[in-house]
Specification:
With about 300 residues, the protein is α+β, with helices and mostly antiparallel strands. About 35% of the residues lie in helices and about 25% in strands. The strands form four sheets. A four-stranded mixed beta sheet has the order 1-12-2-11, sandwiched between helices. A four-stranded antiparallel beta sheet has the order 6-8-4-9. The radius of gyration is 23 Å and the shape is elongated. The mean pLDDT is about 95.
């Protein structure tokens, strides 16, 4: 993604920039580290986790596989993310399932290619992919209760280039989001069944690959209450509130799955009309959050390890 914030400090690397605020999150944690190391007003051991590859949704999993909590044991874990659209500095909390699971799937459709003028001698993989795309949209409306959120999005269909060629192969890429692990399993199974059956009905084939996935992010109510207490004392009651769960995903969920004694919360980046959401070309981290976030980390540490 190309940065278009217009800021003097905008990325000079084509197609790459800090579009989610992880540079700001890192700085916030370093601010807290400097203060806590200097003052030492807590009893115990504090582990600061600087996790890579969050945008790929497997950095947390890889750290766990590498023995993160074996080498650095944690009684409780906490994570924070800036959130444009929420009032500046406002802490957002939600008990239980707060962020969706995420699964990336590839579907390779294979048919029989040929010239566009003689379709009767072909099996049109593009046509098959279109039927699969339409059929997948029935999963949420017909296989999942309306009381459970789920999203199936086909974000990419890669076929041929020439207008007069019927393609023998198409690659579909899609994402699945749910807030319930049982719903997640159902959706993934239905995607497989629908893709294979639709392809077979056209004398084509469909092969599915599960590229990566992360679980539902679930917050412990007791950990949430601790953050609520600390944040209220620090910022005031008006600056702490409930937020609705959302279908974005976060691989901190792997860490909470391993150690459920913890929570993940948001800090408002401002709700001005021109404040861009993350993953937007115009996004720019609000530096006014740096000290607010650091202050909360310090207060939370001193409260938990008092």
């Amino acid at each position: 993604m190309q940065e278009m914030s217009g800021k003097a400090w905008a990325s000079r690397v084509d197609g790459r920039f800090h579009g989610c605020g992880h540079d700001g999150h890192t700085t916030t944690l370093l601010y807290a580290a400097e203060y806590l190391a200097r003052t030492r007003q807590f009893n115990g051991t504090l582990q600061l986790i600087f996790q890579p590859a969050e945008e790929l949704l497997y950095g947390g999993r890889v750290m766990l596989e590498d023995g993160l909590f074996d080498q650095f044991p944690c009684d409780a874990i906490f994570g924070l993310h800036n959130m444009p659209g929420q009032p500046l500095g406002r802490i957002g909390l939600h008990d239980g399932a707060m962020m969706a699971s995420s699964d990336t799937l590839h579907i390779e459709v294979k048919g029989v290619g040929g010239h566009g003028a003689v379709p009767e001698h072909t099996v049109d993989a593009t046509l098959v992919a279109c039927h699969i795309t339409l059929a997948l949209q029935s999963i949420v409306s017909r296989n999942i209760t309306p009381f459970e959120p789920a999203v199936v999005t086909v974000g990419s269909i890669q076929a041929g280039h020439a207008p007069n060629i019927i393609n023998d192969k198409v690659l579909m890429k899609l994402t699945v989001r749910t807030l319930n692990e049982q719903v997640r399993e159902t959706v993934l199974q239905r995607i497989h069944d629908i893709a294979v059956a639709q392809a077979e009905s056209f004398n084509a084939s469909a092969a599915l690959t599960h590229v990566n996935g992360s679980p539902v992010l679930r917050n412990d109510p007791a950990a949430n209450e601790m953050v609520r207490t600390v944040a209220t004392a620090l910022f005031g009651e008006a600056q702490v509130g409930e937020v609705k769960p959302f279908m974005g995903s976060e691989d901190f969920a792997f860490m909470l799955e391993r150690n459920p004694n913890g929570c993940y919360f948001t800090i408002g980046a401002g709700d001005e009309a021109d404040r861009c959401m993350v993953h937007n070309p115009g996004y720019d981290f609000n530096d006014a959050l740096l000290l607010k976030g650091a202050a909360l980390w310090c207060a939370l540490t001193e409260h938990y390890l008092r």
